[in-house]
């Protein structure tokens, strides 16, 4: 069976095909999400740093800020091998609260975790309030 599409829809069909193809390719192994427990809203503009343990020290691998949805979808740097070991994500929450003129207790929230399976995706959500936080292994 032959199917003909109007010329006007071809750009949209092409864009959809590219998007579907991009989703099928292996993605970044690490993402984060910050939600404000006080408002129930995503928290944009949180500076985040990814570090890897190297002996007794930490080596910075990447840094980014959360988007309007409170997410960083691809925190692990492209081109580096994702290896087993200890990692730390540091959420710079104090800067966020200072910008909003609000007091907070935690200027930085370091979240350490161990990668044991490099073929898996690691998602680190942070539920945040000015005087407390919670985190867990998401998916």
From TrEMBL:
<dbReference type="Pfam" id="PF00576">
    <property type="entry name" value="Transthyretin"/>
</dbReference>
<dbReference type="InterPro" id="IPR000895">
    <property type="entry name" value="Transthyretin/HIU_hydrolase"/>
</dbReference>
<dbReference type="InterPro" id="IPR014306">
    <property type="entry name" value="Hydroxyisourate_hydrolase"/>
</dbReference>
<protein>
    <recommendedName>
        <fullName>5-hydroxyisourate hydrolase</fullName>
        <ecNumber>3.5.2.17</ecNumber>
    </recommendedName>
</protein>
<feature type="domain" description="Transthyretin/hydroxyisourate hydrolase">
    <location>
        <begin position="25"/>
        <end position="139"/>
    </location>
</feature>
<keyword id="KW-0378">Hydrolase</keyword>
<dbReference type="GO" id="GO:0033971">
    <property type="term" value="F:hydroxyisourate hydrolase activity"/>
</dbReference>
<comment type="similarity">
    <text>Belongs to the transthyretin family. 5-hydroxyisourate hydrolase subfamily.</text>
</comment>
<dbReference type="InterPro" id="IPR023416">
    <property type="entry name" value="Transthyretin/HIU_hydrolase_d"/>
</dbReference>
<comment type="subunit">
    <text>Homotetramer.</text>
</comment>
<keyword id="KW-0659">Purine metabolism</keyword>
<comment type="function">
    <text>Catalyzes the hydrolysis of 5-hydroxyisourate (HIU) to 2-oxo-4-hydroxy-4-carboxy-5-ureidoimidazoline (OHCU).</text>
</comment>
<dbReference type="InterPro" id="IPR023419">
    <property type="entry name" value="Transthyretin_CS"/>
</dbReference>
<dbReference type="InterPro" id="IPR036817">
    <property type="entry name" value="Transthyretin/HIU_hydrolase_sf"/>
</dbReference>
<keyword id="KW-0732">Signal</keyword>
<feature type="signal peptide">
    <location>
        <begin position="1"/>
        <end position="24"/>
    </location>
</feature>
